[in-house]
Each structure stands twice: as structure tokens, then as C-alpha cells.
Amino acid sequence: MRVCTDPDFNNLLAVLRRDVPSRPTLFEFFLHEELYRRLAGTAADAELDEFDHHRMLVKAFMHAGYDYVTLHASNMTFPAGDMQHLASHSMDESAVILDRATYESYSWPDPTSFDYSRLDVIGRELPSGMKIVACGPGGVLENVIQLVGYQGLSLMMADDPELVEKIFDDVGSRLVEYYRIAARYPAVGALISNDDWGFSAQTMLSPADMRRYVFPWHERIVEVIHAHDKPVILHSCGNLEAVMDDIIDGMRYDAKHSFEDKICPLEEAYEKWGSRIAILGGIDLDFVCRSTPDKITARAQAMLDRTAGRGGYGLGSGNSIPYYVPDDNYFALIEPAIAGRA
């Protein structure tokens, strides 16, 4: 494992502006706890308070070669029912808003009541050249589905579309305010709007319903972030081909993250959309898990070669680095970018 200590956020900023960075640039949404501790040199059994955990993340991201650290701007959430921590679970398991009565009794969070001071405290401690990329507490559609359930939302859209609009408005307006607050902080260099929208074959709602309920709030999220002259990344899983024009021309996102080979291989996605929106990560997670390190490094290097001189690409996985990704495979993925610094 090579340890890096030379972050320069201008490289990621160049990628997000579809320019050519001064060196190969890495992007990952998040890793996993054991890997964070290994990268940061933190003992596996070390007890960390919230701020020490943020400091560990800074070290881990820097030592791995990233020019930023991803942090939630605050602890804001939309409280919902408990879900079993299983590989597969019902998308209705957490539902707490079932009808107008339960909607009226729900206690909505106030974004302004949460503590965002980590963006200042950790921001002041960042190594030179490093910035925070602030992510959200889930997105508009994700939180609505968590509160209402997927089947519940489908039925409610047919039975009471006015209530559906109210719920989307309550979630969306609070996320707009969350991002408005986060974007003000000088240490925040960019923001991630994380909201999964699709299955492998299609969007979770029809494109027409996505445009009616979901996209207007994403337009406002992008607007409040752009008002602070900062770029915003859409992290969204699933097959979004039917709405890519909305993402690029309507919502005006600066970058798209999360790709799967079975939906649209990274190389194809870059050729289709890379001239209009930055492409981040994309080396399929299943490929990273199952392939040998030399094959992973070869594909990563080929992607860097493909995008050299064209810009708008940050190397990373198709989604994230969960615990089941072998460490050697992860290091094989980032190796070409690290080697490119020599």
C-alpha cells in the first residue's frame, strides 16, 4: 500500500468541470470501516468519538490518494421504522406514513436545528490542498420510499396523489435547505446529491412520475449549490438512460456517479455522455470483486488512457468499496492513478 500525502482538490475540480486534471484523479463515494482504519493507521479496536472518526476519514482518504474527504454535513435524518440489516429486505419495511392521519402525526426534521460545525472544525484541520465533499442524508426519492414504502408509494400515487405531492414537498424542501447550509462552508469544495432512482432495467418510478415528483426538487438542490459556485455530483444507482437528458440539461448536474456493466459499461457511458457531464468511478463493483488484481489494474489503466487529454473522468469503482471487496483488489483499482503521480 502506497501512502499519499499530496492532495490537490483542483484536480477533482477540473474533472467536475470536464477539464483535464494535472494528474490522474481518484473518486470514491465511500469505503468501509476496516479499510478506513487500515489506510489511516488507526487500530481496529480504537474507540473514536464522532470528530475523531471524521479525522480518521480525512487521513484515510488522503493516504489512499484522494483530494477530498466525503462527510455528511450534519446528522439530519428523516426518522422511519427500523429495518432488518439483511442483504435483502422489503422496501416497505420502514414505512411510517401510511395515510393522511400518519402524515399529520409525523415529526418532520428541521434542517436548521442540526449541528453543521464539523464542516468548520474538520475544515480548519484539513491538510493543505484538501477539501470536503459533503453528501446528503439520502435523497428525495430514497427518503420518501423509506417513509412511505415502495408498494405504499405506488398505491398512494393512485389513491391520493395530492398527499404524495405533500410528502415529496416536505422531504424535498428540507433537503434543499440542508444543501443550502452545507454549501456555505468554505471547506466544502463540492457536494454529492445521493438518491438512488432505478433498478437494473428501468427507473423506480416512470420517467413521467420522476419528472412530476422527484426532479423539481433536484433542480432546486442543484440551484442552491451552484449559487455558491460549487459543483454538485449526482450519485444514483440503476438504469437512468431514459432520464439522462433530464439529469444533464434539466437538473444541470456536473457529474454522474454509479455505473454497472450489466446496465451500461463505464467505457460506453463515457463515450455517450462524457462530453456533457463528468463521469466518476464506474469500474463495475462485481468486476472489482471477482477479477484478479492484474485485470483490475489493466482495466483502470485503460480507462485512464481512454480519457487522457479529454478530461471529465475520475477513476474509481462503480458504486463504493464495501467490506466484501478484497483489499488487494481495491489497491489494484487505484494503483494506476497513484503510479501516474510519479
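the 2nd protein, sequnce then structure:
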Amino acid sequence: MKQSINIIISGGGTGGHIYPAIAIANELKLRYPDANFLFVGAKDKMEMEKVPQAGYNIKGLWIAGIQRKLTAKNLSFPFKLISSLWNAHKIIKKFKPDVAIGTGGFASGPTLMVASRKGIPTVIQEQNSYPGITNKLLGKRAQKICVAYDNLERFFPKNKLIKTGNPVRQDLLSIHHKREEGIAFFKLDKNKKTILILGGSLGARRVNQLIEKQVGFFKNQQVQIIWQCGKLYIDAYKKYDELPNVQVHQFINRMDFAYAAADIIISRAGASSVSELCIVGKPVIFIPSPNVAEDHQTKNAKAIADKHGAILLKETDLETFPIVFETLLKDEGKQQSLSENIQTLALPNATSDIVNEIEKLINKNVH
């Protein structure tokens, strides 16, 4: 048996692809302390900063997605793809991985394509209820495809699918004991209901516009707001931080405390957010972004709403928000049933279940 194991991981573009990749790496490192890890990302995307912060090496490929409309960027796509395949080939030849793991995003395409052609076992972790084009193509050659939703045999070979769920931050598993700490951390009034608003790491324009419009309405409802407006919007909305019972944050570092303090959550429906919210088990109003590939956020939210685990409010129906919100706020029974139903969909052991599958491939390959 060779001395150490080499593991290549590729995923990025958004936090939803990066954080699962890092969670998988951390779990593998616990099991294989001497393993060598190499991440492959897209140059100038957030993984180039976040992965080294987590303590791992990363190489960047010159790759971007195809724009839906004809643009100059699309004309450069074939060159970027050829460059990325060539560089992925060089990286893999030098690093000699025993297994390649992809969590989605542009860079995972060339990396896993080259790895599978070289006979290296590959694992895909698909976070969404509707996979993107990269993972659909890679699925034909992967050994295992770890998914978070049912009915994905429409897109992938059934015999490769394993339902594991999405990796989530481990500190969320114990939030039910942290309510008082959360209230103290955010300096909240424990006699008022707390509404947590989440727009993803960059922020969500339509969600922010909605909250701005409803600031007076929330005041009349006598609730307090923790509003995570995102990096792109902090300058426009930080003025509302001066209002009593409104806090505006660019980013929330202690999500465990924010979730613990919240009574109702208003959120986008990216895959990692949905997985976290299932574990958190609070009443949720999902406002999915319609501007993502294949409208996958609406499909993610619908998968939960269809099982009576959340309320789905489309951007086209935002004028009904005050009625939807006030009805939920006044109906404790509905809050309770949403909480109970969403928790039944939680898969809290996702990270270790995914790594169990990766471990089987490593053992087969290394021995």
C-alpha cells in the first residue's frame, strides 16, 4: 500500500459549492491525517480566497460558464475550455490523485472529465433538486453521485445515486440549546418575535427591496429584524440599522446564533441554505431567485413546500407578502407544523455519509 493518499476536490463559484467541498475535505482529513489535498477552482472566483483560508492548497483554471445570450464571453468559451482541460491534465498528471471529488461549479467540469478519462474514481456531490449541465455530463462517467433530493434518476444513472443530503456546518446541529446565547449576542428583546432575513452571501436584490418597502409594516407587527443584506447591498441599506428593532448586516459570522434566535426565517432557496434550514427547523418563507440556472431555487423550495415544510412565495407574487407573513405570525399552530415537517426532511449526517462512499473508492483503489 502506498504511503499517503492524494485527494483532488473541485467546486466553486458560490458558497453553495465551496462550503460542501471544504466540509468533505475536513471529514476526509480526520480519517486520513496524512492525506495530501489539492483543490481546483476557477481563477478570480471566491474559492481562490475561501479555500486557502480553510487551510488547503488550490490551483485556478481559466474557466467560466456559458452566458445565456450571445456575448463576447461566449466567444472565448471554447478557448477557456481547451485551456482548462489542458491545465487540469497537467495538474492531475503531477498530483496523481487516488480519487477526484466534484461539488459543482465551472472548474469541476474539466477536472473530473480529465480524472475519469485517466481511470481515477470520481464522486459527484449534487446539491440541487435540478442538476446543472456540468454535473449532468459528468454523471455518465462518475462512480458515485451523492444527492440531496429524491427523483434524480431522471438525470443520472440510478445505480450510481446515493441519497446523502448536503454537508452543513456542524455548529448548526446544536442550535436548540443556544437560543438565549443568540438573543444576547444580537442584543435582542426576548419578549419580541425575531425575523431573520437571508439573501445569500452576496445578497438578493428583490428580497432587499421587499424588506425596505415593508419596514413600517414590520414595525406595526412589533417584531424585530436581523437583516443580512449581502456584500453588494450594504451601502444602500445600512441606514436602516439606525431604526429601533432593525439590524442590518453585510454578512453574519455566527449563523448558529442567528438561527437560534429566529422565530421566522425569510430566505432564498439555494441548496445549502435549504439543507441548513431543514436542520434548523424554524418556520420558513422561501423567496427563490428566478435568475439561476434551470430555475433550480424554485424547484428546491417546491420540494420542501410540497411536503408542507415551508411557504413558497415567488418573486412575481411579492405584493401578497404582508398577508402571507401576518397570517403565519398570528398562527402558532402553523408555525409549529412547518417546523416539525421541515425537520423530517433534514439529513444531518450528510458529510460523513458522503465520505463513507469516498472511502470505499479509496480503499478499492489503494489496496
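The chain has a mean pLDDT of 91. The longest helix spans residues 72-95.
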